[in-house]
Amino acid sequence: MPIDINRLQQALSVEAERGFSNLQGKQFLFADFLHVNLREDLPENWEMSDRLQAQTLASQYAQYNDLSLSRRQHLIAETRRLLYEVRRREIAETSALSGITKPQKKPKIEAITATEPKSTKKITPDTEIKDIEGIGSSLAVRFQLLDLHNVRDVLSYYPRDHIDYARQIPISDLKNGDTVTVIGTVKKFGCFTSPKNPNLTIVEIILRDRTGQIKLSRFWTGKRYSNRGWQEIQKRLYPQGCTIAASGVVKQSKYGLTLENYEVEVLEHTQDTIQSKTVGRVVPVYPLTEGITPEAIRSLVVQCLPAVSQIVDPMPDRLLRDYQMIRLPDAIAQVHYPDSSATLEQAVIRLTFDKYFYRRLVSLYRRQQQKAIHFVPKSQAIDQLEKIIPFELTNAQKRVIAEIRADLQGQTPMNRLVQGDVGSGKTIVAVYALLTAIEAGYQTALMAPTEVLTEQHYRKIVEWFMQLNLPVEILTGSIKTAKRREILRQLETGELPLVIGTHALIQDGVNFARLGLAVIDEQHRFGRDQRSRLLQKGEDPHVLIMTATPIPRTLYLTNSEIEVSIIDELPPGRKPIQTVILKPSQRKDAYDLIRREIAQGRQIYIVLPLVEESEKMEEIKAAIQEREHLQNVVFPNFQIGLLHGQMSSAEKDEAINIFRRGETQILVATTVIEVGVDIPNASVMLIEHADRFGLAQLHQLRGRVGRGSAQSYCLLLSSAKTQTAQERLQVLEQSQDGFFIAERDFQMRGKGKDEGTEQSGHSSFSIEDRLPDEAARQEIFQIAREAAERIIKKDATLENFPLLKAEFEMHYQRLQGGAIFT
Ligand code: ADP
Ligand code: MG
């Protein structure tokens, strides 16, 4: 099968739109689809360098699930760029062959200011871009790469910013930390590849205006940017004296002001015209990809704008009035060329409202089509369980169990997230849910992200299940073939009521007779696709997700269709963990405390920091060395174990079990112990280079201690001196509340905002980013949900709302998600 660039591009764009979650297509997961296709026999006309790059990219898709969000974004951006390049070359070649090597027409800049298009043909929302006057076929193809096919698409290609030329910020007024757009002329351009690292290319532009100058710098990673040709093109893009607008975050460095990883756009190639044409105007700035100039997209939008009046607002008047929304055609016109900042805001609000409204409508509609498995409540096993467990449930546990049991008897499949801080006792809550399903005659599955965790669950649950006379099996990668075959058989016949496992559960060949409930522990470790693959093992099974990483309310509320239960109470008798930040000079104090604790029979974790993927071997080396050092020099009298990510799972289990049995007193570990390990006798958690961890992760690590009744300690060693690093760690000193910590972490990161501002541009922008603040977003989210619920309540089939239904169907297809890459 030859590679189909178009399909790949579509897949990439859907994946990007849906938040890089490795979507499930009809047949393939997104990453598998890319992996396979980029390795296909590539056509002759591909250049060698492209083939090589395709190969490299293909192999990265094999590891897609393990990549961080920003690396996924980056990978996708790289792939899009490659495909775009190849495509562009193909087009150039074919037009050269057919002899129509038209000189590329420059898009008409005057169009920006013109209000009427030149075209005499009437433009409608369905007019195709290629039929618009002044748009050549090659330009039309480039717009297609942005998913812009007709006028309607263009009109809903919203600007990510507006530049108000009337209110420029003079460079001399810029302050550290400001997010700004500055306009100036290029004084100097430089582009060079790091002599030490051929993968790193740096572009630097000195920009100046009447009041001063600022350095723009941007890093490009990848061999292809070390290419002379590429650098020459960059240089030609920003000739001396041309006027550009650059946006980004201002940084004060010892070399003066800089704007790092800026977004830039060329306004004018000569200096003189800018005044006359743009002063006093508000100009939209669109998310772009390579190959399309800002002028081209602006000019296209202006040509399409007259069609706005033909757009019909599908939203019932009643809703618009009740929620005080402006009409859709007005919103679209204003979001591009606003009359004022107030009308712009109204437009953004309406468009965001629509986005959430349709999303909710689709989800409600889909849900009512699903039929839930109805569990008839029995409580024999549950009553028995209550007698077995050695503690009394907390009120929070009781409440959450009741919420779950109500869901399990409801009309639609449960889709519930249980958030509970580390140690809040989520496992037992899951067991109540599992038993409810099992008693109703269904099979159940519990999936955990690591073997260690899976074993731990198994150990605890098997003990309870044995007393209830219920079989339970564990399925991981290290289960031997014969045993595995037997488990699969029992799942298929339906005789096994519960299987606990890792990813091994979602492999082909694992089939359930009747899966009624899937419980997924520590969900942030699983991609959305992995979850959905588990669910596909049954017919609309109930789903319960458990997480100890408190996702900030602000995030989950506006991003998912999941119900949330919170266990906001720890079992009684737990002492708060004493948390202290230590300077390197206080290391001795830490070691003294450790000796005292071990003398009292307690155990210690020492955690070493995360390193880059590429430095995996270094991490191992560091861990081994640190253990040796501690063993030989610092604690010669104690037994010290080691746990790191490159060990086989058998070795890991061994290390943890030895520690569990108390044969080692100290366990030196990389962050593999982050999730869920439960050893109540451990009382000290010492974290090296604590400033290199995220707050949520530190909180997780801290949660490994304080599980028994003894006083526990968390020692954060940090040599970081900056105020932000200190402030960050202090949050942990102040609070043990995972929710609070997560919110603070979220806020603090939001402020810095320099993470993940990758060059991928277009895909990462969405309309709600233009709302003034998070509160506004939540409010719109709430009312949009309510509006959708009202509609569905009134008319579940939408027969009485034909316009809405048409619009809905478009969104429905989209949200089916990934159907494209089958
Ligand atoms: P997590 O929410 O972190 O997964 P676990 O379910 O592992 O927490 O529970 C942590 C520990 O607390 C376990 O040893 C568990 O048996 C115990 N536990 C759970 N609920 C209670 C309770 N209500 N009272 C006392 N101990 C409890
Ligand atoms: Mg747990």
TrEMBL record:
One Pfam family of this chain: DEAD
PROSITE patterns: HELICASE_ATP_BIND_1 (PS51192), HELICASE_CTER (PS51194)
InterPro entries (alphabetical): ATP-dep_DNA_helicase_RecG, DEAD/DEAH_box_helicase_dom, Helicase_ATP-bd, Helicase_C-like, NA-bd_OB-fold, P-loop_NTPase, RecG/Mfd, RecG_dom3_C
Signal peptide: none
Helicase ATP-binding domain boundaries: 407-568
Keywords associated with the record: ATP-binding, DNA damage, DNA recombination, DNA repair, DNA-binding, Helicase, Hydrolase, Isomerase, Nucleotide-binding
Function (record text): Plays a critical role in recombination and DNA repair. Helps process Holliday junction intermediates to mature products by catalyzing branch migration. Has replication fork regression activity, unwinds stalled or blocked replication forks to make a HJ that can be resolved. Has a DNA unwinding activity characteristic of a DNA helicase with 3'-5' polarity.
Name of the protein in question: ATP-dependent DNA helicase RecG
Organism: Pseudanabaena catenata USMAC16
